[in-house]
Amino acid sequence: MTTSFTMDEDYRPYHPNPRKPSYTPPHGAVDAHCHVFGPGDTFPYAPERKYTPCDAPKEQLFALRDFLGFDKNVIVQASCHGRDNAALVDALRSSSGKAKGVAVVRYDITDDELRELDAAGVRGVRFNFVKRLVDSTPRENYLRVAEKIARLGWHIVVYFEAPELESLTPFLTSLPGTIVVDHMGRPDIAKGVDDAEFRRFVRLLEEHENIWVKVTCPERLTVQGPPYDDVVPFQRMLTERFSDRVLWGTDWPHPNMTWIVPDDGALVDLIPRFARTPELQQKLLVDNPVRLYWEDRR
């Protein structure tokens, strides 16, 4: 039985006609942060969701990947699908090995269910602390999940906003294995790279070599808008200082964008502005994501 869904009236769909990038990514490049949504009639959106997006199915994601010049995807479970990873798993199984995934799971998930996700290509779980997107989850539930996935060699992706970092740090540093922070920890771009909150985040990376960072989503963080000149210094600092622990992705189909519908081709063309050498681009787009997602870390 299928269920019909109607996109929220104020939801802004992804760019219908992105430009072909001028920048050519290195061979084997990975879009290490993107999503699939629905289609809702086949993979229903979660009853507890905070938004109802436009459908953005696997076929469109893979076509965009090829158009932008990338070879692989890392597909991250988004909050609109809750803990039902069916759309994610379907995309992974349809990718001919060119996609891996990050799931959102119940704290009481069984080892058999985890092994099934692992076989499909899931390599991590996401903990979302952004209150406007998800309901609060007890920390002990996250710890239960962390202990279970450690046996599989998976990592943990965390999503939070900069003001929450100070209170979250003791918890984050208690987690086992590799931790990946989404979207640079969502710094306040208007305050600049010398702001105390961003310096706190940089110190966290300096002091904990198991913590990685995605230099993603300038369109979410910018104050000025395209071409995102105000975000580049943040991306550049992190890419150059932590070159072995950075990842990049489009964030397609860009859920909950309120004032910018980003052109994915323009986002790709931003890469050489902050990863300024071929060596940095190779690490950012190939070596790091392949090491984290395609190599056996058990």
UniProtKB/TrEMBL annotation:
Segment Disordered: which positions? 1-25
**InterPro entries named among the record's database cross-references:** Amidohydro-rel (IPR006680), Aro_Compnd_Degr_Hydrolases (IPR052358), GLI/LigI (IPR047874), Metal_Hydrolase (IPR032466)
Please state what the protein is called: 2-pyrone-4,6-dicarboxylate hydrolase
Boundaries of each Amidohydrolase-related domain copy?
A: 30-293
Positions of transmembrane segments: none
Concerning CDD domains, the annotation shows: PDC_hydrolase
Q: Which SUPFAM superfamilies did the record assign?
A: Metallo-dependent hydrolases
- Show the GO MF annotations: hydrolase activity
Alphabetized UniProt keyword annotations: Hydrolase
User: Is Hydrolase one of the keywords?
Assistant: yes
An example Pfam family from this entry, by short name, is Amidohydro_2
